[in-house]
Amino acid sequence: RPGLALCAGCGGRIQDPFLLRVSPDLEWHVACLKCAECGQPLDETCTCFLRDGKAYCKRDYSRLFGIKCAQCRAAFSSSDLVMRARDHVYHLECFRCAACGRQLLPGDQFCLRERDLLCRADHGPPPDGAAARGPRSP
What is the pTM of this model? Predict the structure, then answer.
């Protein structure tokens, strides 16, 4: 459809013999499809991500909009294993007790206070009513 399409980047008519189509309805001049953050050309060799009408390279999209570790604030890669506590997500190596630094493993009991993870030994007894009723140890 050269000559009929309007470029989502510059708004001009695409008269070129080639155009780049992103998602089903956005078409771009080959020269206009660039990362809105770093300016890297985005073509058939580079993955393109859209947000609010702007195109981003994978690195910048992940940095700007991806989920970040609640401890170190770094982004996750697709191969990272993660730990979750409520709505917080952590790298495995960042899932540590804030008091003693011990790494918490799957199955470990812990407490989340504010943004701090605390292991069972460091968070003390649960507040009244928070534990299931049962025999108490002295």
Answer: 0.58
Tens of pLDDT, residue by residue over 44-69, are 787 788 888 788 998 898 888 888 99
Between CA 103 and CA 92 the distance in angstroms is 8
Q: In this structure, what are the phi and psi dihedrals at residue 76, rounded to the nearest 5 degrees?
A: -100, 145
Q: Let me know: does 127 contact 116? Beta carbons within 8 Å.
A: no
CATH for 66-128, options being 2.10.110.10, 2.30.30.40, 3.40.50.300, 3.30.1330.60:
2.10.110.10
Instruction: Count CA atoms closer than 13 A to 130's CA, side-chain side.
Output: 6
